[in-house]
Amino acid sequence: MKSLILKDLYNIGHNAKSMLLILLVFAIGLIMVSGVESYIISSGVLCSMMIVTTFTFDDHCKWSKYALVMPICKKDIVKAKFIVLIIFCIAGICVGTIFGVAGGVAMHKMALSMEGIVTMLFMGFVGLIVSVIFGSMSIPLVFKYGAEKGRMLLLISFAVPLGICFMVYEILMMLGVKITDQLIFTILCASPLIAAIWIYTMYRISCRIFYKQEING
């Protein structure tokens, strides 16, 4: 398991500087327009997309075919991708929070106070949940259709969770449930559990897709 994770981290390592530059340039524009909060969440989502790049490297070296003949548990191959995704999201949120706070203070978009820092840390938590949910949707798509088509289908990985949230919102409105601060706080408290259930579902789907590929291969 550890070797599978390190493989993807080493392969993506040379892209780290490019991603840092992208996040830095992105900070200059987005913080001015949308604020620090949006930038932190966007940083996590951007870094979650790097999981697709690891599949691209695997395709170039035909890793999947090689892995299938090795004494490696097939579930571990899938599990490693999700762990790497979480690492990418955490890294993106950490860098985004640092750049966001620095840029926000420099652009006078936030005050460097305890309250402001706590707020940004909270937004980092929200961004981590959002980016992991979005990123985990892309993994079964790439297992199913490959890295190149998976990139084009990334929009689906964003649209599906957003669509589900919109449907839940509409149902609550139909039932006459008011969206209060207390309800939002309750949802945020439950978000780690929601994310865990979502990730596990995507993991099981990915395992099934990968298993079928093994049988068909």
TrEMBL record:
Source organism superkingdom: Bacteria
Name the residues that span the membrane: 12-33, 82-105, 117-141, 153-177, 183-203
Pfam families referenced in this protein's UniProt entry, alphabetically: ABC2_membrane_5
For this UniProt record, give its keywords in alphabetical order, as a comma-separated list.
Membrane, Plasmid, Transmembrane, Transmembrane helix
The record's listing under InterPro entries reads: ABC2_memb-like (IPR025699)
- KW Nucleotidyltransferase (keyword) present: no
Its protein name is ABC-2 transporter permease
